[in-house]
Amino acid sequence: GIVFDVSAQSGQTYQAETTLFTIADPQALEVVGNVTEEDYPLISVGQSAEVYFDARPEVTVQGNIERIIPIRIEGDRPLYNIYLSLDEVPDGLADGMTSDTAITIAKSEGVLCLPRATVRAPSGDTTTVRVWNGVEEVAKEITVGLRGDTYVEIVSGLSQGEQVVTR
Predict the structure, then answer these.
(1) Cα dihedral sign, 145-117-48-112
(2) Which candidate, 92, 94, 165, places its Cα nearest to that of 128?
(3) Share of residues in the chain with pLDDT > 70 (%)
(4) pLDDT digits over 94-127, tens only?
(5) Which of 41, 46, 72, 121 is the 20 to 30 A CA-CA neighbour of 35?
(6) Which distant-in-sequence residues (6+ apart) come within 8 Å of 151 by Cβ?
Protein backbone atom coordinates (compact mmCIF):
# COMPACT_ATOMS: atom_id res chain seq x y z
CA GLY A 1 0.00 0.00 0.00
CA ILE A 2 0.83 3.67 -0.07
CA VAL A 3 0.90 5.92 2.99
CA PHE A 4 -1.49 8.82 2.32
CA ASP A 5 -1.44 10.50 5.71
CA VAL A 6 0.71 10.40 8.85
CA SER A 7 -0.95 11.64 12.03
CA ALA A 8 1.70 10.35 14.46
CA GLN A 9 4.80 12.08 15.72
CA SER A 10 7.90 10.45 17.12
CA GLY A 11 8.05 10.36 20.92
CA GLN A 12 4.29 10.83 21.47
CA THR A 13 1.93 8.41 23.23
CA TYR A 14 -1.42 7.63 21.57
CA GLN A 15 -4.55 5.83 22.70
CA ALA A 16 -5.32 2.47 21.09
CA GLU A 17 -8.19 3.83 18.90
CA THR A 18 -6.15 6.70 17.42
CA THR A 19 -5.45 6.60 13.68
CA LEU A 20 -1.71 6.99 13.19
CA PHE A 21 -1.43 6.37 9.44
CA THR A 22 -3.79 6.20 6.47
CA ILE A 23 -2.66 3.52 4.05
CA ALA A 24 -4.42 2.42 0.86
CA ASP A 25 -3.83 0.03 -1.99
CA PRO A 26 -3.97 1.93 -5.31
CA GLN A 27 -4.83 -1.36 -7.05
CA ALA A 28 -8.00 -1.70 -4.95
CA LEU A 29 -10.04 0.85 -6.89
CA GLU A 30 -13.73 0.29 -7.48
CA VAL A 31 -16.01 2.16 -9.83
CA VAL A 32 -19.19 3.84 -8.64
CA GLY A 33 -21.68 4.10 -11.48
CA ASN A 34 -25.35 4.69 -11.79
CA VAL A 35 -28.16 3.17 -13.81
CA THR A 36 -31.51 4.53 -14.88
CA GLU A 37 -34.80 3.40 -13.44
CA GLU A 38 -35.56 1.55 -16.69
CA ASP A 39 -32.29 -0.43 -16.54
CA TYR A 40 -32.38 -1.11 -12.79
CA PRO A 41 -34.50 -4.31 -13.04
CA LEU A 42 -32.22 -5.64 -15.82
CA ILE A 43 -28.95 -5.69 -13.88
CA SER A 44 -27.70 -8.11 -11.25
CA VAL A 45 -24.72 -8.66 -8.98
CA GLY A 46 -21.98 -10.56 -10.80
CA GLN A 47 -22.94 -9.21 -14.22
CA SER A 48 -19.95 -8.25 -16.36
CA ALA A 49 -19.22 -4.72 -17.54
CA GLU A 50 -16.70 -2.78 -19.59
CA VAL A 51 -15.27 0.38 -18.04
CA TYR A 52 -13.69 3.25 -19.98
CA PHE A 53 -11.65 5.91 -18.17
CA ASP A 54 -11.37 9.52 -19.35
CA ALA A 55 -7.75 9.59 -18.15
CA ARG A 56 -6.90 6.46 -20.19
CA PRO A 57 -9.19 6.52 -23.26
CA GLU A 58 -7.15 3.84 -25.02
CA VAL A 59 -7.86 1.30 -22.25
CA THR A 60 -10.98 -0.82 -21.72
CA VAL A 61 -11.14 -2.60 -18.36
CA GLN A 62 -13.36 -5.59 -17.61
CA GLY A 63 -15.25 -5.62 -14.34
CA ASN A 64 -18.26 -7.00 -12.51
CA ILE A 65 -21.18 -5.52 -10.61
CA GLU A 66 -20.40 -6.05 -6.92
CA ARG A 67 -23.24 -4.13 -5.24
CA ILE A 68 -26.50 -2.51 -6.29
CA ILE A 69 -27.89 0.16 -3.98
CA PRO A 70 -31.73 0.16 -4.07
CA ILE A 71 -32.07 3.82 -3.08
CA ARG A 72 -32.82 6.53 -5.64
CA ILE A 73 -30.10 9.19 -5.93
CA GLU A 74 -31.33 12.70 -5.12
CA GLY A 75 -31.88 14.76 -8.26
CA ASP A 76 -34.18 15.31 -11.19
CA ARG A 77 -33.46 11.94 -12.88
CA PRO A 78 -34.32 8.52 -11.42
CA LEU A 79 -30.83 7.02 -10.99
CA TYR A 80 -29.44 4.29 -8.72
CA ASN A 81 -25.82 3.69 -7.66
CA ILE A 82 -23.98 0.49 -8.49
CA TYR A 83 -20.44 -0.54 -7.52
CA LEU A 84 -18.13 -2.40 -9.88
CA SER A 85 -14.93 -4.29 -9.13
CA LEU A 86 -12.21 -4.23 -11.78
CA ASP A 87 -10.38 -7.31 -13.06
CA GLU A 88 -7.21 -5.20 -13.25
CA VAL A 89 -6.32 -1.58 -12.55
CA PRO A 90 -4.15 -0.04 -15.27
CA ASP A 91 -1.36 2.39 -14.37
CA GLY A 92 -2.30 6.05 -14.38
CA LEU A 93 -5.64 5.73 -12.58
CA ALA A 94 -6.47 7.20 -9.19
CA ASP A 95 -9.42 7.56 -6.83
CA GLY A 96 -12.01 10.09 -8.00
CA MET A 97 -11.32 9.86 -11.74
CA THR A 98 -14.28 9.77 -14.12
CA SER A 99 -15.31 6.79 -16.20
CA ASP A 100 -18.08 5.40 -18.39
CA THR A 101 -19.45 1.90 -18.05
CA ALA A 102 -21.17 -0.39 -20.55
CA ILE A 103 -23.18 -3.28 -19.12
CA THR A 104 -24.46 -5.81 -21.62
CA ILE A 105 -27.98 -6.77 -20.57
CA ALA A 106 -28.66 -9.10 -23.51
CA LYS A 107 -26.96 -9.81 -26.81
CA SER A 108 -27.98 -10.96 -30.28
CA GLU A 109 -25.56 -11.61 -33.14
CA GLY A 110 -26.17 -11.87 -36.87
CA VAL A 111 -29.57 -10.14 -36.71
CA LEU A 112 -31.15 -7.40 -38.80
CA CYS A 113 -30.88 -3.99 -37.08
CA LEU A 114 -31.86 -0.40 -37.68
CA PRO A 115 -30.48 2.73 -36.03
CA ARG A 116 -32.41 3.51 -32.86
CA ALA A 117 -33.34 6.98 -34.14
CA THR A 118 -35.13 5.34 -37.12
CA VAL A 119 -37.37 3.07 -35.04
CA ARG A 120 -39.93 4.60 -32.72
CA ALA A 121 -41.43 1.81 -30.61
CA PRO A 122 -42.04 3.56 -27.30
CA SER A 123 -43.50 0.75 -25.24
CA GLY A 124 -44.59 -2.16 -27.41
CA ASP A 125 -42.83 -4.63 -29.63
CA THR A 126 -44.44 -3.43 -32.86
CA THR A 127 -44.22 -0.18 -34.76
CA THR A 128 -44.45 1.11 -38.30
CA VAL A 129 -41.61 2.26 -40.55
CA ARG A 130 -41.71 3.77 -44.02
CA VAL A 131 -40.05 1.67 -46.74
CA TRP A 132 -39.21 2.66 -50.33
CA ASN A 133 -40.50 -0.07 -52.67
CA GLY A 134 -38.89 1.42 -55.79
CA VAL A 135 -41.93 3.49 -56.73
CA GLU A 136 -43.30 5.00 -53.53
CA GLU A 137 -43.06 5.00 -49.75
CA VAL A 138 -45.17 2.36 -48.05
CA ALA A 139 -45.83 1.72 -44.38
CA LYS A 140 -44.67 -1.62 -42.98
CA GLU A 141 -45.38 -2.95 -39.52
CA ILE A 142 -42.30 -4.41 -37.87
CA THR A 143 -41.62 -6.31 -34.68
CA VAL A 144 -38.61 -5.18 -32.67
CA GLY A 145 -36.46 -7.22 -30.31
CA LEU A 146 -33.48 -6.05 -28.29
CA ARG A 147 -32.95 -2.29 -28.04
CA GLY A 148 -29.50 -0.89 -27.51
CA ASP A 149 -28.10 2.59 -27.24
CA THR A 150 -27.34 2.64 -30.98
CA TYR A 151 -29.39 -0.06 -32.73
CA VAL A 152 -32.73 -1.85 -32.48
CA GLU A 153 -33.10 -5.50 -33.50
CA ILE A 154 -35.76 -6.16 -36.16
CA VAL A 155 -37.41 -9.53 -35.49
CA SER A 156 -39.93 -9.49 -38.34
CA GLY A 157 -41.55 -7.27 -40.95
CA LEU A 158 -38.39 -6.28 -42.84
CA SER A 159 -35.92 -8.15 -45.00
CA GLN A 160 -32.27 -7.44 -45.57
CA GLY A 161 -31.84 -5.01 -48.46
CA GLU A 162 -35.13 -3.16 -48.04
CA GLN A 163 -34.72 0.62 -47.98
CA VAL A 164 -36.12 2.28 -44.87
CA VAL A 165 -36.98 5.96 -45.25
CA THR A 166 -35.46 7.99 -42.42
CA ARG A 167 -36.74 11.50 -43.17
Answers:
(1) positive
(2) 165
(3) 97
(4) 888 899 999 988 888 899 999 988 887 666 788 9
(5) 121
(6) 113, 114, 115, 116
